[in-house]
Amino acid sequence: MPHSNRKRNLNHHKRLEVTDSSGWTHVTAGGKSARRALRPTQQHHDNPEQGEQSQILVPAEAPAQLNLEDLQTQFWGYRQRWEGSESWRVVERALSSATVKVDRIVCIGLGSPSGFLKGGWVDRRSVSMYQLAGLVSVVDLMSESFVLDLLPFYRRVKKSIPNLEVFAQDPVFNTHDRFLLASLNITVLDHPHGFEKVSPSTLLYCPGAERTHLEQLLSHAPALVFGGPLEDIESDAVRQFVESRLSVRISRFEDMEHAFWNMRVYSPEEGEQ
């Protein structure tokens, strides 16, 4: 039987980290399909070689039949499982014992709870759903103390107490994600406006922030941080922040371990609150 001289096309896809011009990194499969999931900027049309190196992440693509009602139903199931876990109880105790006050919560790097990009992007919808459940649980907990702190003043002036501000930023949020977050009273911001909301009175929730982002975010000295583990980040700026904080590592989340892998709650040391 004759042998063919044509090379066989072995479909081995490597995992690649694709970083866009603003520093966001997501994991994708290699090959032509990975490039189809990305949209080059205008300058990359003019300079194809540069376009191969720096590409922009686009919003995740949700299944065609998905609607907001289905997405909300899914979310409440994830939240119920999260709040029934020992992992949440560790977070709850750590935040409840912190005496520092916060007036807003900022979430960076949540990912898309509803979609994935065609062409080989990793499907991490369940991870994002659990992490969103973690965010909403934290919001509800911190809102209670926020209201109690403001209650005496607003009673005197006879005005309604404002809600705790909650913001989220990730370039892969799609329309479904934005509607879901809005239904949970979370305001979606585009880059870099989420970064601009971080201050010494902020709780920063960063389940998927990159090193360059963490360096920028932590330079604002947020009051509380839920994320990490920051100890694994090779950065002098991040290390200095960690050394100035107490931290509590949450226990293993049995339903999906990597959704909260080794995450910690970081709070100021005594005397700095």
Automatic annotation (TrEMBL):
Residues 96-266 form the SRR1-like domain. Residues 1-15 have a biased composition (Basic residues). Residues 1-53 are annotated as: Disordered. InterPro entries: SRR1-like. PANTHER family: SRR1 DOMAIN-CONTAINING PROTEIN, SRR1-LIKE DOMAIN-CONTAINING PROTEIN. This is SRR1-like domain-containing protein.
